[in-house]
Amino acid sequence: MENVGALALLLAFCISLYSIVASIVGRLKRKPFxxxxxxxxxxxxxxxxxxxxxxxxxxxxxxxxxxxxxASHTNRDMPVFYKFAAWWGGQEGSLLFWxxxxxxxxxxxxFTTRKGHRNxxxxxxxxxxxxxxxxxxLNAFVVSPFQVLAVDKVVTSVAxxxxxxxxxxxxxxxxxxxxxxxxxxxxxxxxAFAMASLIERAPGDSxxxxxxxWTLVTWLFQSTGVALGSAxxxxxxxxxxxxxxxxxxxxxxxxxxxxxxxxHSVMMQEKKGMMKVWNMVLIATTFFLCIFGTFLTRSGIxxxxxAFAESPIGKYFVSFLALGIAATIWxxxxxxxxxxxxxELESVVSRESSFLFNNLILxxxxxxxxxxxxxxxxxxxxxxxxxxxxxxxxxxxxxxxGLGLLFLTGVGPLFAWRxxxxxSLRRNFQLPGIGTLLVAAALFIGGMRYPYSIISLSLCFFVxxxxxxxxxxxxxxxxxxxxIGFIPxxxxxxxxxxxxxxxxxxxxGIVLMFIGYSGHPFNQTAVGEVDKGDVMKVGAYTLxxxxxxxxxxxxxxxxxxxxxxxxxxxxxxxxEPTRRFYKAxxxxxxxxxxxxxxxxxxxxxxxxxxxxxxxxxAYVFPLVDWIWIGVLVLIGGTLVALVPSKVARSxxxxxxxxxxAQKSIPVPEADRVTE
Amino acid sequence: MKRSFFLKRAVLxxxxxxxxxxxxxxxxxSEIESDDVKRVGTHIACQCGACQxxxxxxxxxxxxxxxxxxxxxxxxxxxxxxxxxQVIAGFISDYGKSIFRADPNSYFWMVPYLSLLAGGGxxxxxxxxxxxxxxLTPAPAGPSIHDPVLEKYRSAIEHDTEKLD
Lengths: 675, 165
Description:
By secondary structure, chain A is an alpha+beta fold. Chain A has four domains: 1-169, no CATH class; 176-340 and 352-405, no CATH class; 421-513 and 637-649 and 656-670, no CATH class; 521-622, Tick-borne Encephalitis virus Glycoprotein, domain 1 (Sandwich), CATH 2.60.98. Helix content of chain A is 60%, strand content 12%. Chain A is built from 19 helices and 13 strands. Chain A has helices at residues 2-28, 32-62, 68-73, 80-85, 91-112, 121-142, 171-186, 188-199, 206-236, 247-272, 276-299, 314-334, 351-383, 391-411, 422-445, 451-482, 486-496, 498-518, 625-642, and strands spanning 150-151, 154-155, 524-530, 535-538, 541-552, 556-567, 570-575, 578-582, 587-591, 593-596, 600-610, 613-622, 658-660. In chain A, the strands form three sheets. In chain A, strands 4, 5, 6, 7, 8 and 9 form a six-stranded antiparallel beta sheet that branches. A four-stranded antiparallel beta sheet of chain A has the order 3-12-11-10, with no helix packed on it. In chain A, strand 5 (541-552) and strand 6 form a beta hairpin. The radius of gyration of chain A is 27 Å and the shape is globular. Chain B is mainly alpha-helical and 165 residues long. Chain B has helices at residues 2-25, 29-32, 35-41, 67-79, 84-95, 107-131, 148-162; one strand at 136-138. The longest helix of chain B is centred in the last third of the chain and has 25 residues, at 107-131. Chain B is elongated, with a radius of gyration of 37 Å. The termini of chain B are far apart. Classes of the chains: A alpha+beta (675), B mainly alpha (165). At the A-B interface, helix 13, helix 14, strand 3, strand 9 and strand 13 of A face helix 6 and strand 1 of B.
């Protein structure tokens, strides 16, 4: 069975190579049948990688312990759900998963663009197949998931496997990697279209129109993946952290930040024909950060709490990144003349410049995260000194930048395209501005003394107020014109321009998340060793230990503390934090007990068992629920933005009143595209 | 009666003294999880060897076989009057220099913020350049229409495009 899997990967490798050659030669020599065979090769690669993946999944579920990967990442007593998740639980399997997703995306691209973009498609396929070839090289020759256990060249097997890391045996962790990977891999498609457009010297923005929805879906996957990872950390790790700036977490946020910058910046190109070079740079940066993130997770260059073990694949990633980045830079520089801006900036106080500043802050955040992630490595290389860089340091660095971004989230959308008049500025900012100052004053008078929290909550009010005003103004106009109620008019307004109002909802999601982050300085903690009958206090809560119980399952042993919880003397219920000890992995994990409310979470972790006593860690986390609500609003907003608008929008470009005095670039008649 | 009182006292006193000593020496969980202990703990690298596998294992709050005793040791050293440097020096003498983790230096702050400043300058230059772009030469003259009604519509369009999304 494993031989069939390995053979499928080898064949997929060969066919990927063929796909690259056939597509590119077919396009250069104008041989449509050759290009078509390149497209069909993509489908064949998808079939072969699916076969290999199917064999690996079958081996994981049936427990074929002759295979090294199966023995390392599953055991007999694991639920089937987690056996399936072991596909992406380890190095080799996750790389195969990457390949499978990329081949699936490739097949979808071939299917969806079968009737259009005939000139771009061969290059798109060539680029996607090159990326695929890289991952298949790793899968087939470097870290094969089909290696078998052997002693003196005789295949052997073990009685039971080591099991999946117990911390990963949690529902959010089962779906978190697929979402993140869907995001990582998905950015390959807009990148491929962008580069294909450059190679073909295709004028216009057809690659942007084609990949807009694709980029948004990919961004949605990545946002959801990052949020699921955050939720997993909060609910599983036992100390209530939802973001600890671990290198692997940073690896997931880097392309997200660059992708967010791209999603904003691309609007400048669509509506004004500006920032063409910049958009190419941004989409390439996003894609290479996806590859870099995968490299960071797997190379072992940074010490991470959830990196894969050190492996030889780091040098392959470095080579691929170096070649890819060099080729992209060359291509952009070579085609600069085709990326000239079609418009000029009319005023500094305009939507255009707000996009520039938005891009600046997003990329500055991206660079700061990258710098912080690599800082320990750089310092160690330069000074031979190891650095302790925990979340506190990162928060000090990132919070001011994050607040700047929040401010721009409120300000940016209120500027008009071309220029914003003083009257418009006053109309849009006067009320929210005064309200923001009042909120800040009220928080200070109310006793809040954390400057960042005051600024953050005030800015949240500002941004929320501007968004609500935008919805209110538009809806009122529709309501008066169509004589319909306010709620239907909000729906009508959103439906008329889903992209704009979906975007506002995404911004509202960000606001809600910042409300959640603002509660962080007010966290309260208590730790205690308790026995039956003991009492422990945290914040306004009193926890009385009613019982300490224990039990055994084939997969793990467990201990539970049954706690009677009261708040300000009033009984509010029972909580049961549990500690599990997984037998195969010989590792303990916490199943935390959580009482969740909009104002605060009571979070209890059964941390350890010493003698007859249980060590309990109790926390009160104010406002943390708003983070998860914000994520849901962000997802909802992105889905709204994906719905086609009721009113088809075509954006008039700036009127051409003249041609540049200097030499202009002639565009061949055949390549001219009507927008 | 009096003898029995002294006897009782002779027995009770050492017990009470022992209890007081133990109470003074015993570390409660909240003490070894204090901010003072964690502050020093961030400069000590966990030596359990399982950090790559175990996400819970970090020196400042981990529960592994190295972290917890190490935090207890930090607490005891602090109680004995040692400052942060002395506690860390104690760990270095026991485990070698590789156990030490330094705070990041000022480059950690400076580089991102200087980059942000440089980026701001660049954006300013771009804005300036975009505002004062290359001079335009008039396009070939097209048919010219002078119609007051058309002018009215043109100004309305101009007004609307200001608010254009």
